[in-house]
Amino acid sequence: MSLLDLEPCTVHVYAITDGTHLYRLPYSAAHWQESIKQPGSLSVTVPLSREAKRLDLWSTLRPWKCMLALQRGRSVIHAGPLTDLQWDAGSRSLSLTCGGGMTLLTKRLVLNRQLRDGWRDGTVLVDEEHPAANMTLSWRRTWWWVCICRLILETKQWEDLPIDLPAIEEPGGQAAHLLQLGSGDRGRPHQRHHEPRGGNEVIFEPHLTDDGHLRFQLRAGKPELITATHRWDTVLPDSRVDLESVSGSGANLTNQVWATGGKDSDKTLMCRRTMTPLEGYPLMQSANTSHTTVERLSTLQQHATGQLAAGAWPDETFTLSVGEEWDVHVGDHAITRFSDDYLGDQTLELKITDISGDTGSDLLTVTCKEVA
């Protein structure tokens, strides 16, 4: 894509229930951010111009009554429900804050569809072995991203959402496992994708239908999301790819994880997972005590293995300035050559985890991690 081919940015307002287009919103500034497994955000500043005054903003721009989308033509850069606003009477400007497609699920609970019409107030038996009727959701032999789809399908039975799901696939010959959510689970449908740690990468990608409705398509990696692999050379002056910074943290480094699960009387479920330390690194042990409701050893072992994999490599972050014409997406890989006083002259394969941009610039801030 050429920089000259980029259409100007516009902001549009859509109905939150079905994604119907309401109107184009005049604005003075907008900033957005996209992340893997996170809803992202959009901030828009609207001066009260003569055009804006004709739109009856007071009645339409209410938190959780509409969605905003930042677009280039029909291409949606970021979109999500309006969650917060601030009117400054002195400067006569309106500040709007939006989430992303995943944010739509923060107002839904994990609830069996049978409870919509069959619920009766009163006491409920909370027993994991013999739960009350319709108080659990469980599936066997399935992928974790499929659990996300099933949870969304379940909540859409209460009231529809402008979210589209991929075709559900099953793992076939893999060993059967059980996901069970009970009445004690107060989580949101979108939060369940964090189990096990290091599972499928997911995003809710905004798009416009042929008739102009705003919807979100759930995309799940297997386990990674990779739309494209870019090749960048920061040495070339016209590449419009520059290194801004490198940061590192050893807070999550580990090569031996001790995990504890649920208790039964005076017994506690425990497991240990160990890997050979990287060359030059010492033994680093860590405890995982955050899974007190886990009753199956295989599930606890999954959590420990996920933490071990996540902490096996130093947490280094590369921040780059990248021209919009590169059409980058979270999850993409970028084989990048650097020539820097700190990094030296070397080529690294990076994975894009976060992208942020501002309508005042055609340069994006791209955050990456090295592919292990």
Task: Describe this structure as you would to a colleague.
The protein is mainly beta and 372 residues long. It is built from five helices and 21 strands. Strands 1, 2, 3, 4, 5, 6, 7, 13, 14, 18, 19, 20 and 21 form a 13-stranded mixed sheet that branches. A three-stranded mixed sheet has the order 9-12-11, with no helix packed on it. The two termini are 29 Å apart.
Percent in helix: 10-25%
**Content-based structural category:** mainly beta
User: Mean pLDDT, nearest integer?
Assistant: 88
Radius of gyration: 23 Å
Q: What does the largest sheet look like?
A: 13 strands, mixed
Helices, strands, pairings?
Blueprint: E1 9-15, E2 21-25, E3 29-35, E4 38-47, H1 50-53, H2 57-60, E5 66-72, E6 75-88, E7 93-98, H3 115-118, E8 137-140, H4 144-156, E9 163-164, E10 178-181, E11 202-208, E12 214-220, E13 229-233, E14 241-249, E15 256-264, E16 267-274, E17 285-288, H5 297-310, E18 315-323, E19 333-340, E20 344-358, E21 363-370
Parallel strand pairs: 9-12, 13-19, 15-17
Antiparallel strand pairs: 1-2, 1-5, 3-4, 3-20, 4-7, 5-6, 6-7, 8-10, 11-12, 14-18, 15-16, 18-21, 19-20, 20-21
